[in-house]
Protein: tRNA-2-methylthio-N(6)-dimethylallyladenosine synthase
Amino acid sequence: MERIAELTILSPDDKAAAELPRVSADELAIGKKRLYIESYGCQMNFSDSEIVAAVMRNAGFATTSTAEEADVIFLNTCAIRDNAEQKVRNRLVHLNAFKKRKPELVVGVLGCMAERLKTKLLEEEQIVDIVAGPDAYRDMPRLVEEAETGQKAVNVFLSREETYADIAPIRLGSNGVTAFISIMRGCDNMCSFCVVPFTRGRERSRDPHSIVREAEQLFADGYREVTLLGQNVDSYKWLDDSSAARANLRSETAAADRPNPKSPVTFADLLARVASIHPDLRVRFSTSHPKDITDDVLYTMARFDNICNYIHLPAQSGNSRILELMNRTYDREWYLQKIDRIRAILGDDCGISHDMISGFCSETEEEHQDSLSLMEYARFDYGYMFAYSERPGTLAAKKYADDVPEDVKKRRLNEIIALQRDLSLERNQRHLGKVQRVLVEGFSKRSEADLSGRNDQNKIVVFPRGTHKKGDYVNVLVTECSSATLIGTVV
Ligand code: SAH
Ligand code: SF4
Ligand code: F3S
Structure:
């Protein structure tokens, strides 16, 4: 599954980009300006681009899938590792050619890199007209207007409240079956390696009613899976009156006798609310933080068949000293106990994936071995694995030397990747000879004779098409597998 890992979700060569709404003849006839958006980074950025598209549509812009025909180009950027930023800088160089041909073209850099670099980006990249941080998207039409007068336009204010709860996203590059719903923004965790708290600001949760409404609308529109998104979904928290009423119902004590009659809507509550919309609406979520995921969440997952049996639980390291330097606030034992809890409550079949960083400051060979042994213990189904990249301004950049040589980081990363490949294969082999319920997302990448979808554990399953189509649930008997894919036939 495409996830938080740094990946280009709507890169120019991405097939999904081809599914972006094209400008209709009507829109062209009435002279609407055309907006092209390209998204980099995590699912949250992808989801934000859909908010931006909605804001711009409301301001009278049409969206287009081809950069060449655009009047306004936005790059929604990622700053998580240095190479994520390099990718954007290379793209800007490429866009220079467009601007030479069409000098009135407006180029905006949005998202995390914009927030990190602020006006410095204008100095470093001549082609950029607009710099807009993740909380400035309501302001995009005004920023474009300002840029059209030939001035540079900047809004990098971070908010403590903005959740865009009232904006109905325009689903870009959608398969019409699966969608993301942002349930919170920002992060208060301050892991020492991470720029996200600086680029996305303070953590805030979105009104649960607006989340449930969005999920209901998606279901009514034919979507069959929603992924609830946040940097740390387990710290989701919302105080509202209906939760107070519910708390009163639960409690024997009269509301007046209680010190705080309001009990918040927790992530477990929210999951249950979304899962109750319809048994055919699958629910996924990402990301869980090992320090915060509760038994309550695990029991809620066990209670609802339509909450997928899959948890993304980033580890970052398997060594307690490194975890402490990373400021992750848990140690190896805590992480392993969480794995045990998941297996105890949800069974051995629950899919678990992780994030791992190789070569963090001062990591020794032995400590690297601890990451490998943690992976062996957890038997992860999947992993997103990275070499440490120092980010300016972070705690780690200020306090610790980035002293593991590049080639050592790379070698350790390769060992982590190789082990994960073995573990993924082993975990996939468990499904051989078993029937999986698969939600069809579209044709397989290789051939239109085959369909592709995912099972409960988030694994890609490919099978001959038959009479089935996108959005169907089908039962597939798994007959073959690789470390990446399950292959089977409909039963
Ligand atoms: N909120 C999520 C992570 C979001 S960032 C969590 O806490 O788990 C996605 C992943 O990028 C992280 O889990 C981490 O593995 C990786 N990452 C973040 N900063 C990094 C850095 N400076 N160098 C390398 N990888 C990094
Ligand atoms: Fe970054 Fe840590 Fe927040 Fe995840 S929890 S976004 S790694 S600071
Ligand atoms: Fe996501 Fe990259 Fe920002 S991972 S939160 S887009 S820094």
Residues 425 and 482 are 6 Å apart (CA to CA). The pocket of iron/sulfur cluster (ligand 2) is lined by residues 187, 189-191, 194, 196-197, 231-232, 289 (CB under 6 Å). Residues 435-490 form a domain with the OB fold (Dihydrolipoamide Acetyltransferase, E2P) fold (CATH 2.40.50.140). The chain has 16 helices and 21 strands.
